[in-house]
């Protein structure tokens, strides 16, 4: 029988019987790619040649001090809110899986409430909490706080974003815990391992493969959700841009500046998410997917040391 072979570079090659094998052509793919590239080129030409976009203004305010300070506050809100959300998510997920019906129903009620109301409404509610409780009393004699002094815009933003994120993270963590085979938990119990160590050493490491991808999406979503706190006058990226264009009337350029910073940070988070998923996939895949740097290196590689077996056979027969 003849063996069909294809060269590494996609050109025509010869089989062991001497027949020429030509790679199938796909003109439709090239036409579609050409049309898309032409449309992208037209859009880019229109955007960069339109003076109304104010690209000099964009370049000036992209590294402005107030914009950089707003970016730091945005990152701070994202990190703190996600830490609170992940901690609450783990606790609520364990409560949702508890055999105690009271604990299980309490966690379900929390998730039901915070997933059922918009984030913006929750932010405004926490910001106006002093209207309901002017004084915050922790139940200890003499320990009281003025709500107007405690519930600052930044604190209200952290409360609203963190508590809301905890409801969504609980469902993500619960799905990851349920993805682990129950037999492993039973085996750990038979070996005398308590529930805490079973969760920390056996269940969670395996559940991370399911938890990481949606958690990365939630982190990117949280980064963009922080723009809602501009209604509380928290000086994050969008509010900083609003303050500037309220003074200079350069609305579009400042909105482009805010959008560009969101894209930059989202790109960095996406790269981190990719490598984190790749790290936790080591136990479930024989060969890890190539990294972006490896893909770029492969494009510029002239000779591949790992040639297919059929290609090596052709080289030996041609000698």
UniProtKB/TrEMBL annotation:
<dbReference type="InterPro" id="IPR043429">
    <property type="entry name" value="ArtM/GltK/GlnP/TcyL/YhdX-like"/>
</dbReference>
<feature type="transmembrane region" description="Helical">
    <location>
        <begin position="107"/>
        <end position="127"/>
    </location>
</feature>
<feature type="transmembrane region" description="Helical">
    <location>
        <begin position="30"/>
        <end position="48"/>
    </location>
</feature>
<feature type="transmembrane region" description="Helical">
    <location>
        <begin position="68"/>
        <end position="95"/>
    </location>
</feature>
<feature type="transmembrane region" description="Helical">
    <location>
        <begin position="252"/>
        <end position="276"/>
    </location>
</feature>
<feature type="transmembrane region" description="Helical">
    <location>
        <begin position="147"/>
        <end position="164"/>
    </location>
</feature>
<dbReference type="InterPro" id="IPR035906">
    <property type="entry name" value="MetI-like_sf"/>
</dbReference>
<keyword id="KW-1133">Transmembrane helix</keyword>
<keyword id="KW-1003">Cell membrane</keyword>
<keyword id="KW-0472">Membrane</keyword>
<protein>
    <submittedName>
        <fullName>Amino acid ABC transporter permease</fullName>
    </submittedName>
</protein>
<dbReference type="InterPro" id="IPR010065">
    <property type="entry name" value="AA_ABC_transptr_permease_3TM"/>
</dbReference>
<dbReference type="Pfam" id="PF00528">
    <property type="entry name" value="BPD_transp_1"/>
</dbReference>
<keyword id="KW-0813">Transport</keyword>
<dbReference type="InterPro" id="IPR000515">
    <property type="entry name" value="MetI-like"/>
</dbReference>
<keyword id="KW-0029">Amino-acid transport</keyword>
<comment type="similarity">
    <text>Belongs to the binding-protein-dependent transport system permease family.</text>
</comment>
<feature type="domain" description="ABC transmembrane type-1">
    <location>
        <begin position="71"/>
        <end position="273"/>
    </location>
</feature>
<keyword id="KW-0812">Transmembrane</keyword>
